[in-house]
Amino acid sequence: MTTTKFNDEFSFSEFKVIPQANLLIKRSQKKRLEAKVMSLLILLASKSGEVVTRSEILAALWPNIVVGDEVISQLIYSLRNALADDAKNPKYIETIPKKGYRFIAEIKVTNTDKITPIESKERTNILANNNRVSLNRKWLVSIFLLLITPFFYAWLVSNDNLQKSIINLKIQNILPVTQDIGVEGDFSFHENHKKMVYISSQEKRVDLYLKTLGQNRSEQITNDDWVEYSPLWLDKNTLTYIREKSGQFQIIRHVLQKNAEVIYESDNAIFNLALRENAPFTISFIEYDNYQHNKLHEIKSINFINNKVTYLHESTLHLPSDIRYQIYSLDGQTLYFFNNSDQVKEIVSLDLKSNQYKTLTNKFSWVEHIALLDSGNLLISGEVSATKGIWQLNLSDYSIKSLLPSSSGQRITRAKFKQGQIYYATYKASANQVIADIKQQTFDFLPKLNSDANEYYGIYSKDNKTIYFVSNRTGYYELWSYNVNSQITTQVTQLQASFIYKPALSNTEELLAVVYEKEELWLSIISLTTGEPVNESKIPSMKYPLIWSKDDKSIYISEHKKHVNIYQYDSVTLKAKLIQSRAGLFAQESTNGESLTFIDYKIGGLISKNITNGTISQLSSSISNLEFLRPGELKAVEQSIFAVKKDGPKRKIERYAITNDNQTPRSKILMDLPNWSRVTDFNANGTKAIFFKVSPPEGDIMTILFEQ
User: Fold this and answer.
1) Closest by CA position to 438, among listed 639, 668, 653, 665
2) Is the pTM of this model over 0.85?
3) In Å, how far are 178, 372, 445, 471 from 430, measured between CA atoms?
4) Ordered structural domains, the chain, with CATH
5) Rounded to an integer, what distance in angstroms lies between the CA atom of residue 470 and that of residue 476?
């Protein structure tokens, strides 16, 4: 699922790919697990052609310990993965339903003194204590080396090539992998096979597709009215992914050519499936929590064998509130993620044994996705100093290297390394300003204002002759002005921001109040004469300037974090005073400056509050879909409220009559807008509205070829 990012909207675009298992290789990191897998291999090989029951395996590997039966499945999975064996078409290990397993590969017996025996008390005890086999230890070692050496060598070559490709080699060519209509993204690879699964979004359809690399044709896997995303391979024939419909979210296990099975479902948003290599039957995911446990998002895990759900915050008490794009290290002992809590924006590592955090870097102004490049590097799709693209983060010295900057307004939403190549997904959907003339029922698409870049958050001057807006046409986000009569655009600021939100114009039209991102979140008062900040202050969470007081000595600001609150900020000191909790969205000061009209979410309508004595008068109630509206989408003009009515993607402008009898206001639909339009201001008399609309999105999966 690919969505455009307006920053103040809640949107996700996630994927995760299973790393190739190498549990038998990294002995220094996973000695105990390697020993168990080695012991299982020796046990099966020693009884080649015979069925070894699950009870025999338990007795041999855990002679004096009671363990769950599921650990056998996990060891079999790891052993097959190391041998590149397919459970459906096995070459080494055959599953005998309801009985056990049988080693079916031909064994070549060698007995050479040149091989140094691998010392392991545990493996010796399997042979001696259980008295089930009587094989020469050198012969057993030979079996193991004959089986595992080719895969070990391939792993070494693969990792050596990886380092050379990423660090030393230059880009030779960039080629498309998919070129369908719409957007292809959310992709993942099966590590042992040349198969890619990806999401394709076309108009109102979002489905899952399967593609074999090197072939032009793709096979459609799903064909329903669900929105699928975050696909992940469990084995050669089994996928897991998330799907959503009508606010219902499900995690699916889908055996290819068979029906999908629901593993977990929730009314809250779920995103970013991730696999922990040392727990191959456990999938982690992020679930929207809305601060119910003092967190915006929570990391959860589900065991596909028993469907047991666990919460990471139960073992790690001080997790950040807004975690995104979690991914595990190869040994499964470290969790990497993007911390977006209170606009912190940092990439963090969490040691799962010690529960110790470490900030790796805070140079990314935004992160689209994190993938594991190898044991020493992360592959980051994100933005540094207004440059979007693919980045390599070295886990030793935390240095950042640009691998591929994006171009032509594209975003790179995810990147993955496979077999000496980088695959990545692009997304482009330009945002342009449009004026809706409510009286004439026409649209002005402002060809002189809009560019190939993104244009956001237009607001009117008091005389409606100037539009101030946000654009990234220089590469950075800046404030611009547009003269309606001369049709000339002029750059106002030189902030070099990574994003700027909707501004508010002072009554003298000499100042703009604005919140912008540049490493941190800033509330700034901008001079329209110089374009420079007059006063500014760091703020911990998102706030939206609504309107200036009549004397321009203060600014009314709406805070949007869990609950909406409205504050009065001194325009010089930028000190805040809470006006009303669970209120905001819109503000209008009375002529004498004594009272303020705004939305009260508790009553679902408009109230007027005396700033001096605190008395409240209710003006109206039951304004529709208030919880979905953003600043700029509602405005009071004389005795009317102009607001945006939202119904799925549909947008309409409606007008409410303000009453003083606390009754439900009468409403009238005035005009239809294009789907997904985002209104940011109405003019002074309510005859026009300015909104930005996103062009139909485009996106492909590409691959980078390196010079050899």
Assistant:
1) 653
2) no
3) 21, 30, 13, 11
4) 431-622+675-694 (2.120.10.30)
5) 10
